[in-house]
From TrEMBL:
InterPro entries: CoA-transferase_III, CoA-Trfase_fam_III, CoA-Trfase_III_dom3_sf, CoA-Trfase_III_dom_1_sf. GO terms for molecular function: transferase activity. Coiled coil: none annotated. Gene3D superfamilies: Crotonobetainyl-coa:carnitine coa-transferase, domain 1 (3.40.50.10540), formyl-coa transferase, domain 3 (3.30.1540.10). It comes from the Bacteria. This is CoA transferase family III. It comes from Shinella granuli. Keywords: Transferase. PANTHER family: BLR3030 PROTEIN, SUCCINYL-COA--D-CITRAMALATE COA-TRANSFERASE.
Amino acid sequence: MNLGAAERPLRDLLGAIGWDDAPVERLTIEERPKVLATPWPVAPLAAAVLGAVGLAASRIRELRTGERPRISLDMREAELAMASSSYLLVDGKPAKFRDPFTGFYEAAGGEWVYLHGNFPHLRDGLLALLSVANDADAVKAAVAERRAEDIEAEAIRRGLCAARVRERSAWLREPQAAVIAAQPLVHLERSEAAAAMPLLPGGERPLSGLRMLDLSRVIAGPMAGRTMAEHGATVMRIASPRLPSIPSLVIDTGFGKHAAFAELDTAEGRASLRALAADADIVLDAYRPASLRGRGFGPDDLGRLNPHLIHLSLSAFSLQGPWQGRRGYDSLVQATTGMAAEGREGRGPALLPCQPLDYLTGYLAAFAAMLALIRRHEQGGRWQATLSLAATAHWMWRMRDALGDDATYPSANPDVAAVADLLDTHDTTFGRVTALRPALRFDGARAGWSRMPVPLGSDPAYWPRS
């Protein structure tokens, strides 16, 4: 066992979730020079979370076959996994998308606000709020006349996405910060008693034969599903044909998955989702809090349908406190919690050169799902896990305080050529897709996917036959 700088965050994570008998002795983390352009200790945090995923997969493999695979992880690969979409190519061209409207704007009084408009309806809603056309100079001028907190408040009232850029100290004065600080990084609990549901013996991979219903969008939630597929689960991503999507993220997070449409405003769509949930092991809800509950698909509704169903809930700012229900993405949470404020120094705020809140939270959700499978096997019961991007940000701050900043770091992230040894190219319906390969290895063999990403709605809305 060699954990290096990842040991402290890994043990913190395992202790917080109560996995006291995790087989940590099976894990080896190979330290490497830092590769991302930030003083934040991203590499050990990423390695800790990915290591936890590996430990859970190894333990499930042991429960099903008696084998005890050893896990190895390269810290360079773990760190780069926090910027996965930046290394996605389609037919040799970078695929990552960001609407030019999206970014930081200086507001009245020298404050800053982050406006998120990567979906057209969010961009157009913010333009309407500012009463301007989609012109960069007009947007800058309109923001400069308003206070950042007023823009944020009105955007939230309208269901849009804007965040006043806060220093960490200002975030900690917000009532929601106290709510987040009082919560564990991952809250895993048995919500109801039920008989144990043993994991079926055998299986080619740790999660073979297990089914996950992925009700999520963008990055964090879909990454949880991708990670489960990476270890053999059958993952069905359900989307609405009416909701917009970002093709590069559908590709990046779609490895290993089936993808179907179900329109929950129709009786047919609701029936399809109920049938899928009745035969699933895990369901992930990463939509706006209470959205699915309002349609009859909350945790209790699904629990009555399937008493052994593991429920994962992922939100931006948690399901509790005055900000419950607030929309948010990685960038908005970074701006809100002080992670972006340090980019100032005469150039304004800046996001980290990766999306650690999205990717860490996605991997943490997969870890929670696997640990819930272990506990369902050993203890019985119906299990629920709740996670949020803000809780992950709080953990990152706490671990940064404990570990300190990295003393040296590059001035820019590596380009695609510099990570070519970690990329694979696949033939898909999207074209020739080049992407980072999975970072975890078991007894020397790298984890992987049995399916390539497909466009949303490509598959029928029922479980494939084994």
